[in-house]
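Supplementary Methods. Inverse-folding protocol.

Structures were first reduced to a C-alpha cell string of length 120. This string, shown here, constituted the complete conditioning input.
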C-alpha cells in the first residue's frame, strides 16, 4: 500500500508553486505616490483667488489619489496577512496531528518491544 499524498515529501519548489497559485491573478497595487510637479508656490505667487483655488484642487486630487492607493495597499496587505495566518493555523493543526501520531506509534512500538521481550 502506498502512502497518501499527504505523507509524501513536499519540495520547496512545489511548496512555492502552491503558494504562488493562491495569489495568481492578484495584481500589486501601484504604490508610487502622485506628485505635484515642481515645488509649492508661495501664496503671494498666485495672481488671483481662482488660480489659488485651481492649485488647491490639483493638490487635493493628488492627496485623494495617494490616499486611495494607500487604502488599496493596506487592504491588500491585510488580506495577505489573513491568508498567511490561516495557513499557519492549518500548518499548526497538521503539525500537532503528526506529533500525536509519533506519540501513538511510540506507545505501540514500546508495547511490541515489551511483548517481544516477554515472549523470548
Amino acid at each position: 500500500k502506498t502512502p497518501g499524498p499527504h505523507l509524501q515529501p513536499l519540495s520547496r519548489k512545489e511548496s512555492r508553486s502552491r503558494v504562488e497559485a493562491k495569489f495568481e491573478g492578484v495584481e500589486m497595487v501601484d504604490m508610487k505616490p502622485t506628485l505635484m510637479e515642481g515645488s509649492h508656490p508661495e501664496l503671494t505667487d498666485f495672481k488671483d483667488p481662482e488660480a489659488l483655488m485651481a492649485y488647491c484642487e490639483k493638490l487635493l486630487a493628488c492627496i485623494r489619489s495617494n490616499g486611495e492607493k494607500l487604502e488599496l495597499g493596506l487592504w491588500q496587505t491585510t488580506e495577505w496577512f489573513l491568508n498567511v495566518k490561516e495557513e499557519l493555523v492549518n500548518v499548526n493543526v497538521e503539525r500537532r496531528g503528526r506529533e500525536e501520531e509519533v506519540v501513538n506509534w511510540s506507545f505501540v512500538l514500546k508495547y511490541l518491544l515489551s511483548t517481544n521481550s516477554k515472549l523470548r
